[in-house]
Amino acid sequence: MSKPDDAPKITSLADLFAVAYQIEADAVERYETLAAQMETHNNPELVAAFRDLARAEAIHRDEIRRLAGEIDVVEHARKVATWRRGESPEAIELGAAHYLMTPWHALQLALEGEKRALAFFASVVETTKDADVKKMAEEFVEEEAEHVNLVNRLLRKHPKPRDTWSDDPDPPNAQG
Amino acid sequence: MRDCQDISVALVGSGGAGALTAGNFLQEAACAAGWHGLLTRTVGAQIRGGEAAALLRLATHPVECLPDRYDLLIGIDWLNAQRFGAEIEVGPQSLVIGDPRGGEPPPVVAAAGARTVLIPFKEMAKAIPDGRQNMIALGVAAKLLGLDAELVSALIEKRLAGKGAAAIRASRAGIEAGYRAANGIDFDLRLAQPAATSGRRWLISGNEAAALGAIRGGIRFAAAYPITPATEVLEWLAPSLDKVGGTLLQAEDELAAINMIIGASFGGTPSFTATSGPGLSLMIEALGLATAAEIPIVVMDVMRAGPSTGIPTKSEQADLNIAVYGCHGDAPHIVVAPQSVVDCLFTTQWATYLAEALQTPAIVLSDQFMGQARSAIERPADIAFIGQRMRATDVVYPYKRYALAANGISPMAIPGTRGGQYTADGLTHNERGTPTSGAADHQAQLDKRLRKLEQFNYGSHWATIEGDGELAVVTFGSLTGTAREAVARAREDGIEATLIAPRLLAPVQPQAFARAIEGKKRLIVVEQTHGAQFYRYLRAHYDLPAATHVLNRPGPLPIRPGEIHQAISEWRH
Amino acid sequence: MATLDMRLACKPADYKSDVKPIWCPGCGDYHVLMSFTRAFAELGLPPEQIVVVSGIGCSSRIPAYTSCYGFHGVHGRSLALAAGLKVTRPDLTVVVASGDGDGYSIGGNHFLHACRRNIDMTYVVMDNRIYGMTKGQPSPTTESEFDTALAPGGTGLRPFHPLVVALASGANFVARCFSGEPNETASILVEAIRHPGFSFVEILSPCVTFRPDEKEWKSLVHPAPVGPTNDPAKAARRIMTDDGFNIGILYRGDRKPFQPAFGTPTADVAALEKDFEL
Prior knowledge:
Chain A is mostly helical. Helix content of chain A is 64%, strand content 0%.
């Protein structure tokens, strides 16, 4: 849905750090939201899976903050890190959740998120005229590539679920 | 010529004859001269041109009910007057005046054996430029009652000031012609001089009194849908609320009306609506919402004959069940019933106070008789019942809107109050207001809402209790005045009887009621219902003596004081 | 004017309560909640100045999930609650949340009159073209051939077109959003709330449980071909050829909002008694 000009414009190193920070911060929040949903809907495996992902993203987020040094990424992100259409790349699609989803599904979504983030930074590398920004963006591309590899390795541990994964013997409950 | 303490006059006419206007003027003239008076009317179903009767009872003392029969019945014409049936009952002592060209008097009148006199209203009106029959009839009535002609004419001038000099001239001429025509008539009743009153006096209807009571109690927002016979409450309220900084919204239906007042009350403004039986039925769901979410509102039901569309212009008392029991689930709330035109003011004001203090709906059960009757009253004193809910002001988020207070009343945070944010809900909730399906919370909140009503001190206003003796007449609403008169007549016969009229119908007051009927051996329950709803309600909640009779009848005919008097007299042992 | 306190409440997280939503994972309403909190943060309003009013249905659960004041009323009557509230408390920001059943079926009458009355508030209807909470009956916006238990083979009825009705009844702001675009939805909500008078925002919000076919909405929605107009006739032309998936603001009108004078007496209660004096 989102086109390049729906995403934030990177015109400086501060912009890049702020946006990178926000991408990770949004991912943390998204994974925690999904963990809470899974808790309410009694899917403990997914609670653990999403909480693990949230923790991993939190580490990335805090690392970026540290890397940014003097730049107040939190404040700056408020100004520049806005997506007019679509959402930030690692905020995985809420609409794709399902109360019976398996860790494999969660990791597939996480994988897509990491790939989108990688593509985002790659496009910054491609389009920026600023040498410092380009260098840092290349670093972020490498980072994201490592994340993609990590998720792929995690996926090896989870076989693709059977077609009946979403079968629930109980009918839905009317509530109102 | 006998001096008497009260005289009753009925003026009947149709098709624009103006009987009601004449009745209005007659009451106003008499009351301006110092007498008390109660004016009601009965009309056909047509919007215009239908048969109409003004029913006026004048007296030297306050009167709160219609008489057993009319001393004077003036028929400007008799067209379709038989539809009134026994509402315009006369007796052998009565005087009936009719127009020889006005049709035949109704059978019930003809059969009464009253004295008849003929006055050609129509012809006399034709003889006056722009002359009207009702002014002639007014003149006749005023003369027979002994009212000063100048007083009457001065009143007409004041009231018709907007209609121009020609109209005033014609009216004066009509009144004078009526006085002349009545000159030769032998009417041996005359009103005794009224007692001097020091206070200011008003002429007011029950509906208007209720509206003023609401404003005095603090109501500043109303939303409503018009319905007979409640519409006059809204008509007076709309401009009046504007003046005192409030407002009235006409809603698209009763469902919107009651939800609007709940929303306004949630926002902190004491709010009100008025309706009749069919509208109250529509409002029942939202009454449950206000009860469950603990939001104060005042809902007036000006009862009319039911069920369903019923008889919109006639009085009855059969909305008791729905007022008390209408909500699904257990949803106790306040139900009060004013007892007279002047009591409409007090009781509506008190209802506002109770609703706000107890954070619950208060239903005011008035009826068409009181609502549309106009009475002369002393200016009611200002009383201290002002609606004031307990507000949560110094709160920290998340706060417990429905905290289990010892007296059941938890402070209410008004939107805008920092820290007080909560979501009001009809879903069963915990102390915070969060929906829950848990047993403990459901029980606790039901207990809380019942407790707050039961522990409250309603004081002596809960009922009118007068008199002594082994027999008690138990009634409510507009029948209180009728029963009072019957008890007074019984006392004249040497029979002591007590009048018990609860003003607070819900929650019930078992201990207070038991005290009131202690030592009573016989009870007569009087009510204007077909199904004896009040009697069954009393039996459900109170211990009644084994000897209890019920005098009940649905509308449209009012229960007369004579009927209750007879019931008392015939049941000595 | 933003005070320090207000700036503290400027993060979307500050408008979320700790109550965990019971919506099914995958429900579009989670996104709508995000849009709400983002919009409120953007507006910089303190949570205690906002009231979210709702009726009954899955979407109507939303007030308790915010940290604002809320009113979860009975089925179909949220607009009436909100009208009484706003007229007597014009200082508050009132947002009404509803669904296609609550808003267009039982609430239909109030919808017409709310648009007509044009009180300053924002009406958000989360349309999932089904009754979710009661397990899958057709709603007024359900496609006529959609098979359900209560209408086997489909209702055979033409679906209700809420934007047409809103425009015809006098709504001062009419827009359609898609829950899957929470940022875009948030910015339209900000505009709707800021726009005076009655603002109507329909949000297509898929039901993961009873309308799994609505997963394809994300490929069906598209930005409206043209920007908003303040000419109701132009808006009417556009909406009559709309395919149901145009996203954006259709109409921004200039009607003056209805707000009677309230709170300033011009007479005291005793003055009212003159009406009755003999």
